[in-house]
Amino acid sequence: MKVNVIGAGLAGSEASLQLAKRGFEVNLYEMRPNVETGAHTTQDCAEFVCSNSLGSYDITNGSGLLKHEMEILGGELIEIAKTCQVPAGGALAIDRHAFSQIVTKKIEQNPNINLIREEVTEIPQTPAIIASGPLTSSKFADAIKVFTKSEYLHFFDAIAPIVEKDSINFDIAFLASRYDKGEASYINCPMNKEQYEKFYNILINAPKIERHDFEKGAKFFESCLPIEVLASRGVDTLRFGPMKPVGLIDKRTGEKNYAVVQLRQDNSAKTLYNLVGFQTNLKWGAQKELLQSIPGLEDCNIVRYGVMHRNTFINSPTLLNPTLQTKERQDLFFAGQITGTEGYTESIASGLLAGINMAKFLNNEPLLELPKETMLGALTHYITNPEHENFQPINSNWGIVPPVELPKKERKNKKLKGQIMADRAILALRNIHL
C-alpha cells in the first residue's frame, strides 16, 4: 500500500525514508519550486531555513539527548547531518546546502519513494502523513482547517543575516568558543560600553518591515524573537541574551568585553557566517547600517538579509494522540513544526516517529507511544496533552520530562541531573521493541 507524505521538509523527508526502508511505497509531495514559501531559497528536500544549527550535541542537554534518541531509533537525517557537520563548539551545526542536497539525492534514488513536485490542496483519503510545515500553502491550510474544525494558531519566525567571512575585520574580531569549550569555532565581535550604546540606539530606532493584515494577529515564538523585540525590553536585555560577553575573552588583549556579537559558520567552505541570535524584521537598509555599526563588521558583505515570516501550527492537544496519529482518522498522522514542535531537531524526530508509527499501523502492529522519560516521548506527550488551555510551540527541554530526585547537595548540579535523566531515557528506549 502506498503512503502519501505531504511536504519534503525535515519531518516529511525523515518519515518517507523510514517508510521506504520498511518496504512501503511513498508518494512524497513537495510544492516547491512551483509554489514558493517566501522563506526557502532552493527546491531541495529538508532545507534548513532559519539557521544551520541543530543545537547542542551534549547528552546532558535536552536537545542533545533527543539526537541520541534518534540515533537509537534508527534516524536517517541525523546520520546525514553528522556527515555535513561544521565546527560549532558543543553544537551540531551543518553545511545546510550539502545536507539538503544529500537528502534530496537519497530520496530521488530510493526506489520506494516517488518525489512529486506539485501542490496538494486536499487531504488524501488514503494513508497519509501531513508534514507540510509552518509555511503550509493557503489552499492546503484551508483543507486542514476544514478537517480539524478549528482555527489555526499563528506565530512569527525570523531569520538571521549571513555575511562573508572575507569581509570581516580580524584586527578586531577574534575566534573563540564560550569558555574555550571545544574548537574555537565562533567569530566574536567585541564591544565596549560606548560601542554597545551606539549599536543599541541604531537598533531601537531602525524602521521595520510592515506586517500584512493577515499577519497582525500572530504572536512571536519566545525562543526565536527578533533582536529588535528583545531590545525593546530594556537596554541590557541583549547583553544577557545573544550578546552576552561571559566566557568570551580575546586572548590577544585579555580584556573583558561589555557585549559580544557571535557569528557561526554556515557552510563547510568556511566562507559564510550567520549572526547568532540576530533574527530580525528590520528593513534591509536598516540591517546594513546596524550590522556595519558592529566592530569588526564595518565593511561586511551581507549575502542574505534577515526576514520574518508567519508560521502555522495545529491545535495538537485536541487533534493528536502521542503517537502523532489523528484522533479522527487512524490512517492520518501529522509531523513536524505544524504539530507545535519547535526546532530542526524536533521536526526530524517527529517525522521519525510518524514514519515508524505509520508503518506499524499498516502492519497491524501496536503503535509506538514513547515513555515520558525520553525526550521525544515527553515532547509528543506535551504537545498532545488535552489539558492545555493556551497551547504554544515548544522545543526539547528538561522542564517537560518527569524530574529525578537528587540529594540536597547535588540539586543545583545541572550536569549531573542531565546525565541521570539521559541515562534513564536511553535505558527506557533500549527496552522498546521497534
Order of strands, widest sheet: 10-11-13-14-9-15
Largest β-sheet summary: 6 strands, antiparallel
Total beta-strand segments = 17
Radius of gyration over C-alpha positions, nearest whole angstrom: 22 Å
Helices and strands, in order, run as EHEEHHEEHEEHEEEEHEHEEHEEHEHHH
Strand content: 15-25%
Reading off the top of the CATH hierarchy, the class of the largest domain is best stated as: Alpha Beta
Question: What low-confidence regions span 5 or more consecutive residues with pLDDT below 50?
Answer: 212-217
Average pLDDT figure? 88
CATH architecture name of the largest domain: 3-Layer(bba) Sandwich
What count of structural domains? 2
What is the number of helical segments per DSSP (H or I, 4+ residues)?
12
Would you mind describing this structure in some detail?
Helix content is 30%, strand content 16%. It has a six-stranded antiparallel beta sheet with strand order 10-11-13-14-9-15. A five-stranded parallel beta sheet has the order 6-2-1-7-17, with helices on one face. The chain has a three-stranded antiparallel beta sheet with strand order 3-5-4. Helix 1 packs parallel to helix 10, helix 2 runs parallel beside helix 10 and helix 2 runs parallel beside helix 12. 49% of the residues are buried. About 1% of the residues have low confidence.
